[in-house]
Structures are given as C-alpha cells and as structure tokens.
C-alpha cells in the first residue's frame, strides 16, 4: 500500500491540477501541461474528458458546480463552489453543489488532508470559472454582433450596456460550445471580489439541520446487510477459534465469519456478525465467543512505552558543533516535554457500505481519501480501477482517521464473501480500541542564550513512533541511529532557522506494536507544545517579555506584522494581573497565534477566561468558515491538553468510550475570539493550523499566573 498511496508525485499533481472543465451544454478542459483549451461535444463529454472539476450549465440556465473534495465539516462544500462562482459571475443562490465520486483521471488527486483544498486548488478553480465566463461573453458578443470588450457578465447573465441587451447563460451555452476558449484570461483583483472573502452562509447547513444530508450510515441499498466485527483488542493477533452458537440464535443474524482488514503492512483479523439490522448484529456480537492467538505480540503498557521514549532521548550521539556552542552560551536551559497518545474520536464512528459484484465495486462512505480507497480496493480485490466507484458522503469529522483504507477493505471482503451489499458499522468502543492513534512524543529541548538574551543555540531531540514506519517490510525493527539536522521540526516558525545561529534536530522512532497515523495537524500538534513552551521558558530565562522575545527572533515583515496584530487585538501591552500566555506556530502554509488568559475563580480553581486567536492563512475565501475551523481546533486542543489521553495496559487500550476518554462539554468552553490577517500572501491551510498553539499558550498563561511550568500533557486544570 505504501507505493499505492505515494503514487501521486508532486509532478503528477501539478500536471493533473491544471485541468478543468465545463460540461453538458458547454464543455472544455484546460491542459496543465500546455495550457491549451479544447471544446468538448456535450453529448460525449462524460466519456472523453479528463478533468479536475465540473461546471455544468443547461439551456434553462441551471448551474451545477462540482465539489471534488470530501466534506467533513471543514467547509469545502462551500469554499470550492464559492471560488468557482466568483469568476463565473453567478450568485451562490443560483447554483447547485454536487459531490464528485473518486476519479483521479477525471478530477485529479482528491485526498482530503494537509489543509490543501483551497491552498492547492484556488488558482485552477479561479481560472476555470473565468474561462467559462469569458466563453459565454464571447458567445453573446457574436450573437449581438458587438465587440467583446463592450460586454460584461453578472449574476448569470451577459450584458451589453450600449444597447441595453442582456442574455442568460442558459441561452448562450449552445453558441459557446462553438467558440475556441481563450488561452489566457484575466482574473479579478481581490478588491473586486463580490463573493470571495465574504462570510456567506454554508450551503450544507440546512440539510444537516433538517436531516436530509447523507452521511455514511444513511446509505440504503436493496438487500443491504449490516455487520459489526469483533476485533482483537491487542491489534495484531489472529483468530484461533470462535463459538457462534448463541450468536446464531439472535433473530436477524444471517452469517458469522472471519474477516481481515489491511492496516499498513499487516492483515488484522476479526470475526464479523452479519444481520438484517445493525441492532441484531450488535446483539449477536455480545454473545459471540472468540479465542485469540497473540503469539509474537508484545503486551506493552503506557509505562513501558514512556520508559522507552525517555531512553531514546539519550540515544543520539552528541553533536560536537552544537555542544561547543552550547557551552559558550551565557545562560542555558535543558527540559523535557511529554505528550500522550490520542484517539481521533470523530463524532461519527467509522462505517462503510460496499457492494462487490460483476467484476466491479461500489463504495459509499465517509472517506477522506477517495482516490486511495479506489486504488487500494482495485489492487487488493484484483478489479480494474475504472470499475471501482467510490461515492463520498458527508463525514461527521475525519481528523486523518478516515483517510485510512482499512475499513472500506474490511467491508469489501465481507461483501465479496456474502455476495451482497454490506454496511460495516464500528461502535464507539471499536473506534477507540482499534486505533490507529496519534503517537505520543517526548522532546528533549536545550537552549543557550547570548549576553543580549537572544537564542544562540537551540536543540530538540524527538522520541516518538513515526507515522508511516509500519508500511516498511520490518515495521517494528529497531530504528536506525538518528542523525542531526536531517530536517526541521513541523510547527516551528520558519524565521527561527535564520535568526538562531546554531540549531540541532534529531529524532528516534519507538519500537512498539500500536498502530499510529495522522491526527489533526499531525506532528505539529505535539511539536508545537514543546517548541513554543520552550521558547517561552527561554524568554523567561532572558528576562524578556514573551511577545518581545519572539519579535526579536521573527524578523521577517510578515511575522512582525503578525505580532503587531496579535498585540493589538489582545491589548497585550496593557494586560491585567491575570495570567497571559502566547504561542505562535506554523504549519500547512499558515501562521496561527493564540493568547490565553487564565485566572482563579471564587473557589480558587484555575479557569480559562478567554482565548484570542489570530490566523494568517494568506488569501482566503470565507471568513466565517475560518473562524469556525479555528474554534473547532481550539476545542479539540483543549480536550487533548486537559481532558483525555489514550493509555495502554497489557497490550490493550484502556479508554474505550467517552466515560473515560473525556471530551470538552459546552460549559468547558471559554470565550473564543478569532481574528484573520489581511495580506497578499499565498493561501495557506485552515483546518489544521489552528490547533498547535493552544496547549503551549495555555501552559504559558498558567506559568504567568502561578509560576508553575507544565511540561506533560494532559493535565487537570482544577488540580493546578
């Protein structure tokens, strides 16, 4: 699977992402290689076009805009068409949004990860909308026999001011198909936008409120069977035997059989209970008896894993250059930070509906990586990829977990064996116990200050379970010795690499059998806590204001402007006697800064009074979606910092549901104020960058109030 998942190279992505199309009555595509535009006959478009996204206009003027990315709450169902509509010159109330199925030849790469939807696609989408609009203008000018330069478009119509003529897009599409599209179009300047940059209401909200939105569990098919799977609580063990005597007595239970799912380089086993209702399947599993063979599996605990991570921090051989400079520093600091394993805990547990039949596969589900699912099933089931159709439903959260291909694979194997469509449903306990998880991480940080109180030496050694290591042929082999400066550290602000004369990074991978994978903001979620907590500790060591200390090291104009804005919106320079903490991180092309304000309540318990967040994501589409994403990231960060963690005992997950893996409740959420930087920078991500600054900002605020440094997550606020 590693080769399959990495099959889209950067060059392939750039090549494919330049393609776009206008379909039905008017069709075209723009080649990413030669930038030529070709007109497509509308009757044959579906069979001959290789596209990235669709704009469909019929003779009645009905406009459909295709969203080729999955919607898991982050807002692509609104932002993708909002970009298209801006240059197409139509209002959002004039369009219908349609979700695309997986088709890399037609739509290009469709993985929903890395906060990439806008930052990766905006230019192609803008050009697509502008080209379509210009072709319609050219069609109207030809029809009226007037200069193209005298015509303009607005609200789905083309106007000729000198003669007061106007025509709707629907009446022009037939003529537009006869026109050679322009090879170059002029895009609007941001000051002329009427849709982009505006807080327009999301078009998916009404359907989610009235219940018509289709999530994975909503999919129904004739003859659909429902399955739940009893999986090994120790992840990788085999099914030795099972007794389904009592299970088959449950009314509605149809089948009980062994099933596998591919998790990285291993096949994990389980026993599936299949019934004519999900309730019957769940009741049947309760009385199922399974004996597991866990031969060769290490029954590790969290305590053992933590010991290993601490020991790993000492494994890299000293860096002579760094050690020499470190000893020359006027003042030094050496500390260790600890972050735990985390579950993804999407409000919608995993589920997938698959029908394997007639040398084809149909898939419906909450999938972040439709292309990967399509390619994986094609390879594993030996079915041509063009015969694997993956339909994306709405996702009730994803956070990286629903990018994995294990749960569609499990459903496909059951469908093939039973020769029927099958919907596999994971319970909350299934989701929590089986993982994969965000890996825990330990950080050994050392820093040296010069006589002026500036950082002259900065070192971070990371000990964690590397994501993707399990794709190797020997996933749990002893990791190779770590070398220094093989790369940076995700989350650390880029200007530090210029302002710090001597920096040193190293990492050691832990050897444990627990499956791990991406979690919202990936490594930045743990790195950000360590780096920004350490920067704050160095500021205190230098006896400098934490914001001024950062300003002295972040010398580029963009970062100086960011700090100016953060100080202004928070009134940092006139802060009160409460505890104030700041943290600024960078990932996925964006800069995010949080200021957290804490105090003691009447019962002398610590409380968070307010969070002020600033997001610099450059060019952006919808400010309300940005604010919602930052708020959601902060709430998720609050849970990870103060409420929950995954622990292991005897090789099994301890926390199994929300009674022990506590989630933030509405009363736990303080006031959150979100601001957005206005600048001309390239677009960056939004869904993930808002999370990493929260934990360090909170811990820095607690230190400001109490003098106590928190270097291990999670911690209980009311115990500080």
Automatic annotation (TrEMBL):
Gene Ontology MF annotations: oxidoreductase activity
SMART domains to which the protein is assigned, alphabetical: Ald_Xan_dh_C
UniProt cross-references to InterPro entries, sorted A to Z: Ald_Oxase/Xan_DH_a/b, AldOxase/xan_DH_MoCoBD1, AldOxase/xan_DH_MoCoBD2, AldOxase/xan_DH_Mopterin-bd_sf, N-heterocyclic_Hydroxylase, OxRdtase_Mopterin-bd_su_IorB
Domain Aldehyde oxidase/xanthine dehydrogenase a/b hammerhead, residue spans: 210-296
Signal peptide residue numbers: none
Source species, domain of life: Bacteria
PANTHER family: ALDEHYDE DEHYDROGENASE
Name of this protein: Molybdopterin-dependent oxidoreductase
Taxonomic source organism: Xanthocytophaga agilis
């Amino acid at each position: 699977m590693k080769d399959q998942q990495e099959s889209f190279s950067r060059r392939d992505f750039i090549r494919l992402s330049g393609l776009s199309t206008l379909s039905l009555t008017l069709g075209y595509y723009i080649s990413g290689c030669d930038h030529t535009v070709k007109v497509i006959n509308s009757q044959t478009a579906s069979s001959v076009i290789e596209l990235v996204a669709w704009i469909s206009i019929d003779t009645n003027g009905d406009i459909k805009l295709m969203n080729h990315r999955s919607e898991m709450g982050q807002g692509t169902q609104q932002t993708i068409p909002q970009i298209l509509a801006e240059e197409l010159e139509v209002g959002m109330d004039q369009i219908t949004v349609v979700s695309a199925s997986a088709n890399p030849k037609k739509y290009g790469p469709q993985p929903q990860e890395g906060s990439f939807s806008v930052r990766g696609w905006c230019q192609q989408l803008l050009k697509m909308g502008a080209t379509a609009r210009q072709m319609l203008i050219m069609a109207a000018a030809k029809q009226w026999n007037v200069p193209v330069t005298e015509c303009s478009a607005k609200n789905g119509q083309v106007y000729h001011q000198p003669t007061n003529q106007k025509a709707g897009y629907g009446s022009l599409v037939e003529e537009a198909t006869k026109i050679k599209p322009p090879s170059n179009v002029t895009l609007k300047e941001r000051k002329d936008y009427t849709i982009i940059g505006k807080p327009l209401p999301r078009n998916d909200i009404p359907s989610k409120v009235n219940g018509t939105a289709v999530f994975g569990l909503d999919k129904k098919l004739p003859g659909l069977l429902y399955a739940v799977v009893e999986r090994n609580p120790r992840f990788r063990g085999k099914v030795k035997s099972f007794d389904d005597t009592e299970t088959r007595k449950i009314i509605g239970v149809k089948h009980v059989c062994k099933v596998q799912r591919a998790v990285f380089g291993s096949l994990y086993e389980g026993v599936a209970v299949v019934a004519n209702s999900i309730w019957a399947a769940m009741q049947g599993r309760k009385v199922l008896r399974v004996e597991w063979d866990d031969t060769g599996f290490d029954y590790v605990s969290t305590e053992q894993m933590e010991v290993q991570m601490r020991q790993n921090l000492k494994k890299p051989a000293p860096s002579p250059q760094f050690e020499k400079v470190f000893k020359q520093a006027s003042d030094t600091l050496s500390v260790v930070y600890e972050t735990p394993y985390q579950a993804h805990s999407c409000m919608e547990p995993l589920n997938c509906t698959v029908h394997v039949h007639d040398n084809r596969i149909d898939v419906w589900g909450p999938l972040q990586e439709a292309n990967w699912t399509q390619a994986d099933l094609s390879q594993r089931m030996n079915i041509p990829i063009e015969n694997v159709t993956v339909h994306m439903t709405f996702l009730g959260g994803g956070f990286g977990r629903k990018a994995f291909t294990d749960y569609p694979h499990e459903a496909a194997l059951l469908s093939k064996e039973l020769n029927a469509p099958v919907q596999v449903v994971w319970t909350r306990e299934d989701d929590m116990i089986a993982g994969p998880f965000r890996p825990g991480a330990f950080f050994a940080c050392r820093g040296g200050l010069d006589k002026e109180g500036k950082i002259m030496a900065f070192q971070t050694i990371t000990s964690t379970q590397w994501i993707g290591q399990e794709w190797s042929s020997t996933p749990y082999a002893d990791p190779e010795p770590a070398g220094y400066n093989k790369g940076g550290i995700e989350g650390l602000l880029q200007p530090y690499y210029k302002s710090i004369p001597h920096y040193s990074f190293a990492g050691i991978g832990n050897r444990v059998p627990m499956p791990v994978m991406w979690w919202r903001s990936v490594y930045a979620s743990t790195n950000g806590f360590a780096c920004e907590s350490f920067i704050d500790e160095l500021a205190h060591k230098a006896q400098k204001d934490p914001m001024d200390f950062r300003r002295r090291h972040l010398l580029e104009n963009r970062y100086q402007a960011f700090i100016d804005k953060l100080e202004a919106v928070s009134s940092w320079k006139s802060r009160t006697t409460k505890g104030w903490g700041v943290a600024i991180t960078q990932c996925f092309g964006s800069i995010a800064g949080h200021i957290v304000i804490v105090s003691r309540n009447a019962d002398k318990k610590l409380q968070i009074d307010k969070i002020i967040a600033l997001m610099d994501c450059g060019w952006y589409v919808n400010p309300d979606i940005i604010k919602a994403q930052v708020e959601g990231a902060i709430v998720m960060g609050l849970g990870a910092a103060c409420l929950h963690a995954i622990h292991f005992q005897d090789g099994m997950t301890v926390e199994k549901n929300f009674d022990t893996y506590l989630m933030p409740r509405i009363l736990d959420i303080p006031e959150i104020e979100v601001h957005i930087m206005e600048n001309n920078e390239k677009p960056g991500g939004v869904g993930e960058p808002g999370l990493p600054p929260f934990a360090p900002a909170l811990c820095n605020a607690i230190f400001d109030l109490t003098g106590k440094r928190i270097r291990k997550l999670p911690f209980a606020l009311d115990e500080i």
